[in-house]
Design goal:
With 504 residues, the chain is α+β, with helices and mostly antiparallel strands. It folds into three domains: 13-308, no CATH class; 325-437, no CATH class; 446-501, Arc Repressor Mutant, subunit A (Orthogonal Bundle), CATH 1.10.10. The chain has helices at 71-83, 181-198, 223-230, 248-267, 313-321, 327-338, 342-349, 352-365, 368-385, 397-409, 414-427, 431-437, 446-459, 461-469, 474-484, 491-501, and strands at residues 13-15, 20-32, 91-92, 95-98, 108-111, 121-128, 131-144, 148-150, 159-161, 168-174, 210-219, 240-245, 275-280, 285-291, 299-302, 309-310. The strands form four sheets. Strands 1, 2, 6, 7, 10, 11, 12, 13 and 14 form a nine-stranded mixed sheet that branches. A three-stranded antiparallel sheet has the order 5-4-15, with no helix packed on it. A hairpin with a 4-residue loop joins strand 1 and strand 2 (20-32). The chain starts with 12 loop residues before the first strand and ends with a helix. The model has no long low-confidence stretch (mean pLDDT 91).
């Protein structure tokens, strides 16, 4: 965890016609496990394959086919649990969640209800400097994904693609600790960041590899505190679940509109019905999908085809020993060891690729603060303008580190360095070679600088008199000398010499 003191953010308050209302949010994140094969079959998990080409007999529920657990998927779930500082259950078991859906040929989903593989953990969600929410994780369980029904290929028929059927999912269930739309989006962002650092889920929301079910309820001010004291859910309002959200913007909008819908119902004297709803971004509304009255249809039974899952502590310890440095620890190190600001450290640790690139730049130049400035302001700014990812950067971290090292040595000024960066970025040339061949090396020869200073002073006697009356005007002479030397003179040396010549 970050070595910082933080205060919790204030809950989101929505003014109703009669009362102020607070939001209470819990989330279930479905994260697709990064693996080459499915949870219980050897079929490929590759995205974008031809429909029904990544399907084994067991995925299609052919008679007599038995599921076989993919050990690597179990390892990925354990790795995720350890990354979220969660308890790992050495004994877990699979259940059948029975319900009919066209793209689930078995007629049930193999999941973990009663004995999940991962128990309680936590995620620290920073919202701004010094403001953070500690969100408790209730559990993580492994389960199969369902396939995909396609309804827009024919006016009278629906089609089913089973490629996704049986792909391993981790369902990460939070406690109702989130108190506003912005917090919810920040929580998903932070969780996605941790999963990507761990390599257990790629976090691709467009492909559906990370999806969120959002549980929203409203309560009067003071009721949430009573719930926290007692853990009694009766203090909170009835919750509704918004299903399958795959965009941060839509998550925020859906929470806001659902909360206002519930407030309107309660203030009109009605009761909120616990149900599953879908968010329609075009109309900015949530619509009823199915009532929780049907919850008894989700009948769970222990899966007779799979033995209870038993893992050894030594195996868990080996996985723990192989964990990478996680975002909070990396950020804390950047702040402490390199003197970076909270903001700069956050930007550089947002993605693993950003952090790796930055650390390679530092290795090449030996200056964290200067490297951070160049990576964030010059490189990221340019990549964003051209809509490129850091992995597509035309300039390598070693070469960017060279530019920073040249500034540190005094070979080039910050201004000239921008020209060197431009050439290196567009032509893939070595920065040291650019400085030599393009005549960009900074003039540090005091004799040459002195001659230029003497020339400017001799040509401007009136300005000399003014500067001697007001030393602030000495900067004008520095500017003139820099101009005369084509910006190549060392600015610090010029300033020192101007002040000496003017007797200031």
């Amino acid at each position: 965890m970050l070595d910082l003191t933080y205060e919790a953010p204030k809950p989101k308050v929505i003014a109703g016609a009669k009362h102020d209302w607070e939001l209470v949010i819990g989330m279930e994140i479905h994260a697709q496990v990064s693996s080459n094969a499915k949870l219980f079959s050897g079929a490929s998990t590759k995205f974008g394959a031809e429909p029904n080409s990544n399907v084994a007999f067991v995925d299609a529920a052919m008679p007599g086919m038995l599921p076989v657990i993919n050990e690597f998927c179990v390892e990925q779930a354990v790795r995720t649990g350890l990354g979220l500082k969660a308890a790992i259950n050495l004994e877990s078991a699979f259940d059948r969640k029975n319900y009919f859906y066209p793209d689930l040929p078995q007629g049930y989903q193999i999941s973990q209800l009663y004995h999940p593989i991962v128990g309680e953990g936590e995620v620290l969600v920073e919202l701004s400097e010094g403001v953070a929410r500690l969100v408790r994780i209730e559990r993580i369980h492994l389960e199969q994904d369902a396939g995909k029904s396609i309804h827009d290929m024919d006016p009278t028929m629906s089609f089913v693609d089973l490629n996704r059927t049986g792909v391993a999912l981790m369902e990460i269930v939070s406690r109702p600790d989130i108190r506003g739309p912005e917090e919810a989006a920040a929580y998903v962002t932070k969780l996605r960041q941790i999963l990507r650092y761990l390599g257990t889920c790629d976090g691709n929301m467009q492909n559906g590899n990370l999806r969120a079910d959002v549980n929203v309820s409203v309560c009067l001010p003071g009721q949430y505190e009573k719930y926290q004291e007692t853990q009694d859910f009766s203090h909170l309002g009835t919750r509704c679940e918004i299903k399958n959200m795959n965009s941060m913007r839509f998550i925020q909008a859906a929470i806001e509109v659902e909360a206002r819908r519930q407030i309107a119902i309660v203030e009109a004297g009605g009761e909120v019905v616990q149900e599953t709803r879908l968010y329609d971004p075009d109309r900015n509304e949530t619509r009823s999908m199915r009532s929780k009255e049907e919850a008894h249809d989700y009948r769970y039974f222990p899966c007779p085809d799979l033995l209870p899952l038993e893992i050894e502590q030594a195996w868990v310890d080996d996985i723990a020993a192989s964990l990478p440095e996680l975002p909070d620890a990396k950020k804390a190190r950047f702040i402490k060891d390199m003197g970076l600001s909270d903001y700069d450290a956050s930007v550089l640790t947002a993605e693993t690729e950003n952090a790796d690139y930055f650390e390679q730049v530092v290795a090449a130049c030996g200056d964290g603060k200067m490297a951070a400035n160049w990576v964030i302001n010059e490189l990221f700014g340019r990549l964003k303008k051209e809509d490129h990812e850091i992995t597509e950067s035309p300039i390598s971290p070693a070469r960017l580190g060279q530019i920073v090292a040249l500034i540190k040595k005094g070979d080039i000024s910050g201004k000239i360095a921008k020209d060197v960066f431009e050439i290196a970025y567009t032509s893939d040339r070595d920065p040291e070679e650019i400085v030599e061949t393009e005549g960009m090396k900074q003039v540090t020869d005091t004799g040459a600088i002195e001659a230029a200073v003497d020339e400017v002073i001799a040509a401007n006697p009136a300005q000399v008199e003014k500067a001697q009356q007001n030393p602030k005007l000495a900067g004008w002479f520095v500017g003139q000398v820099m101009k005369a030397t084509g910006g190549k003179a060392n600015p610090a040396a010029v300033n020192q010499m101007v002040m000496a010549k003017l007797g200031l």
